[in-house]
Structures are given as structure tokens and as C-alpha cells.
Design brief:
Blueprint lengths: L5 H18 L8 E5 L3 H8 L7 E5 L5 H5 L13 H4 L6 E7 L7 H10 L2 E2 L3 E3 L11 H14 L1 H47 L1
Parallel strand pairs: 1-2, 2-3, 3-4, 3-5
Helix pairs in contact: 1-2, 6-7
């Protein structure tokens, strides 16, 4: 069994892209890559190698693994997900979303991604937003999305796609929560069964 690693996440996103391209006939121009938090690593690694993507959405992105923990000024060989070195290689439009109260990845990471992007979209800085709570800021998001939609038809397509991604993410979160509750229930049943044996 493969062990989790940075390189394996790059292989994973590459496999998904190949599946879209070869299995479904998708073209770069039709694909919007979405990366959240650590997921911004494989997203930017792939985006830096695909010059004709429609767009990239970075949600609470990290500049690098080491930079999440320490305010280092340069990239070291042992660092992981060195997005700060890859964002400048992305040719397509980049939308950055980050909560201003993010306690996991400081908002400065998102702001630097936006500053280093070649083709910028107006960013979504979610006032008071934390690391994983986009859905708790519907009014602010709606206001920003409306501005983006007014910029061009392309922006509107981008926002529709982003909305679909966000709905899918919430659906996955719901499934994970149900699975967790199911596992907790099974563990509790097993514990009660063992307790009965011990008292019997």
C-alpha cells in the first residue's frame, strides 16, 4: 500500500486530469482547477504545466508547508508544496478566496498568491471567515460574485462552476459526517458488548 506523500498527491491530480482528457474528451480550456488549503499544492503543480486552463480557484491556499508554521523568506529543499514558486508559472485567470480570520493558514498566504498571479480576478477576502466556513458568509460572497459576474460572461461561467464545486464539497462533507457517525455507532455497540462480557 502506498504511503501518503507530496509526490503521490501530484500523481493523483495528474491521474484525474488524464481521466478527464482521455476518458471524457475534456479540453484544458473547459477545466477549472479548484484547490483548498493543502489541496492548493497539487492544484498549482498541475496548473503550472497546463497553459490553456480556463481558470484556477484557490481557497485558503498555502504558500508552502513550512511557511504555514514559520515566517521563512526563502524556499528550502526540504519544504513541501512550494506554491510560492509555482503560482507565477500559471498562465490562466486565478481567483483567490481566503478568510481574514483564518487560524490555520494566515490570510497573508492568500494575499501573496493573488499578488503573484499573472492574471488576477478580484479576490474574495471573507471578513471574519476561518479556514473551512465559506458557507457561513453567503451575503458577502453574493456581493463579491455579483461584481465578478458584471465583469464578463467568462467570469459568470467561472462563478457557476465554482458554485457547483462548493455544492459538491458540501455533499462530500455530509457523506463523511454520516460515515463518521456510523463508525462511532459501531464502536459504541462494540464497547457495550465488551462491557457486558466483563460484567457477566
Amino acid at each position: 500500500m502506498l504511503q501518503p506523500s507530496e509526490q503521490h498527491t501530484y500523481a493523483d491530480i495528474e491521474a484525474v486530469y488524464k481521466c478527464l482528457e482521455e476518458g471524457y474528451g475534456a479540453k484544458q480550456e473547459d477545466i477549472i482547477l479548484y484547490g483548498q488549503s493543502v489541496g492548493s499544492g497539487p492544484t498549482l503543480d498541475l496548473a503550472a504545466r497546463l497553459p490553456h486552463l480556463r481558470a484556477v480557484v484557490l481557497h485558503s491556499p498555502i504558500l508552502s508547508g513550512l511557511r504555514v508554521m514559520y515566517p521563512v523568506k526563502k524556499s528550502y529543499w526540504f519544504d513541501i508544496y512550494k506554491n510560492i514558486d509555482k503560482i507565477q508559472l500559471v498562465d490562466c485567470p486565478v481567483l483567490v478566496i481566503h478568510g481574514t480570520a483564518d487560524e490555520v493558514v494566515d490570510c497573508s498566504h492568500g494575499k501573496q498568491h493573488w499578488e503573484l498571479s499573472k492574471e488576477k480576478y478580484e479576490p474574495l477576502w471573507l471578513k471574519g471567515g476561518n479556514h473551512c466556513d465559506l458557507e457561513h458568509h453567503p451575503e458577502y460572497i453574493s456581493e463579491k460574485l455579483e461584481k465578478l459576474k458584471n465583469q464578463s460572461n467568462y467570469a459568470e461561467k467561472l462563478m457557476v462552476s465554482f458554485d457547483q464545486v462548493e455544492r459538491s464539497r458540501r455533499s462530500v462533507d455530509c457523506c463523511l459526517e454520516k460515515s463518521r457517525k456510523s463508525v462511532d455507532h459501531q464502536l459504541e455497540r462494540g464497547r457495550k458488548s465488551v462491557d457486558r462480557i466483563r460484567t457477566g
